[in-house]
Structure formats: C-alpha cells, structure tokens
Write a structure and sequence with these properties.
about 70 residues, alpha+beta, two-stranded antiparallel ribbon, about 30% helix, elongated
C-alpha cells in the first residue's frame, strides 16, 4: 500500500505515500511548494497513513501474498 496510497500536500497536489517515509519536508514536484511534514495536520496524517499502509502490507504478507515495491 505504500506504493499505492497518495498523500495530500499543502499545495493540494499528491505524492505516493511510500516516498514520504522518514522525511521532514517535501517539495512538490508539480508546483515547487514546500510542505513541512513536522507540522500539523501533516505530521499526524502522515504517521497515521504510514501506519495504516504498513499494517495492510503486513497482513498481505501474513496471508502469503507478495508485496512488490516500485523502484
């Protein structure tokens, strides 16, 4: 799910959730606006979305399904 879920940026554009892990800021590749991922509401939303995606991936692995990450 990390490669399938989209995360909304401050500028209203979206980026694939898996690219956001362990980052403090993100510069939109479409418009160039910076989103501070350490500030609310982005901090809480990112943590929740990453947790949800990782739980879904773990469940899929437990059921014997392969998890493929995009490069």
């Amino acid at each position: 799910m990390l490669d399938q879920m989209l995360f909304p940026l401050a500028c209203r554009h979206e980026v694939v959730l898996g690219r956001m892990a362990n980052l403090e800021t993100w510069v939109c590749e479409t418009c160039g606006k910076t989103t501070d991922l350490t500030m609310e509401p982005f901090k809480s939303e990112l943590a929740q979305d990453l947790d949800t995606a990782m739980q879904i991936d773990a469940q899929e692995r437990a059921e014997g399904n392969a998890i493929t990450r995009l490069a």
